[in-house]
Amino acid sequence: xxxxxxxxxxxxxxxxxxxxxxxxxxxxxxxxxxxxxxxxxxxxxxxxxxxxxxxxxxxxxxxxxxxxxxxxxxxxxxxxxxxxxxxxxxxxxxxxxxxxxxxxxxxxxxxxxxxxxxxxxxxxxxxxxxxxxxxxxxxxxxxxxxxxxxxxxxxxxxxxxxxxxxxxxxxxxxxxxxxxxxxxxxxxxxxxxxxxxxxxxxxxxxxxxxxxxxxxxxxxxxxxxxxxxxxxxxxxxxxxxxxxxxxxxxxxxxxxxxxxxxxxxxxxxxxxxxxxxxxxxxxxxxxxxxxxxxxxxxxxxxxxxxxxxxxxxxxxxxxxxxxxxxxxxxxxxxxxxxxxxxxxxxxxxxxxxxxxxxxxxxxxxxxxxxxxxxxxxxxxxxxxxxxxxxxxxxxxxxxxxxxxxxxxxxxxxxxxxxxx
Length: 420
Prior knowledge:
By secondary structure, this protein is mainly alpha-helical. Helices cover about 70% and strands about 0% of the residues. Helix 1 runs parallel beside helix 4, helix 2 packs antiparallel against helix 3 and helix 8 packs antiparallel against helix 9. The N and C termini lie far apart (about 60 Å).
């Protein structure tokens, strides 16, 4: 970029597009659950960004991005400045980073939809975006962070954002338990999507926003334009390969074409390409996306054997996709591309490009760290809320529909009238 002013401007534009992901997630989630909880899910998505912005301004941004330029108090584990962010030269980056933080929280909302108390969602979002996420962001993205210093690579958040959000989604859904069947009064709701077209449109919005999501970190690099262009190409083909693979497998296995499988295949491809989007060739981006699309169906098959009720397949899309994308750096990173984006270390490129197992080992370590860190906090938060009897809504509210009991009535009152 030519100047700090231009960097700030592009960061703000990218942040606006990342913010648009909130609309994409809202539509994706609303369409994927039953009609009687549409308002609840939408309100929680509105709360998502609002709560995150406050928590991130007070504490999260300082923990994740508050480096000490004098180096007198700097360390490898936590930021030491920019709490209550108030410096003009930080506003652009804050706006972008709060969008990333809100994305991490939003991933969880769909997995625990229709039966979780709103207070539980608020508590989880505050702790996640004020403490849990920012610390990992510092470890991975700050030049002072200990994982960064080891050579760990995650350009835009396959691990930091998506793996973390996916793990929180899985543990939250497990502890809160499955939804009640409105018809029978017991058991799981097996097929809940009341508007797959709305979910599909939400997925397309997410795909659009993902271009800025993945390319925004390039703005501070010397070869910003070249790296950003590469991330756009790889983001496109990671999504395309994931979508096509998931759609074809669904057709072969179930004998029909599925909107949800198509859009989730696209999303898991996007999640997977997020970490390596700047350091792989386009042909490899296609391979990464295709493997992600296949992993989606493997995850669905395994998930069907558990009692975890995740209406959005959030753990599969974000957890499994995030882990695979993070590890893929260790297999496929191109040395010259790595040199373009960070201080280069010996062996810091992919196994299949002559780098040996060093980078793969670092990527595996980072993946395990993010998984364990996320799992520990998710368990503490959700189990603590359950013990305090603040995790799940009343069964009567769930059976009638939380929109009717807590949100002023159905989102589709004309259909309610026709049923009477």
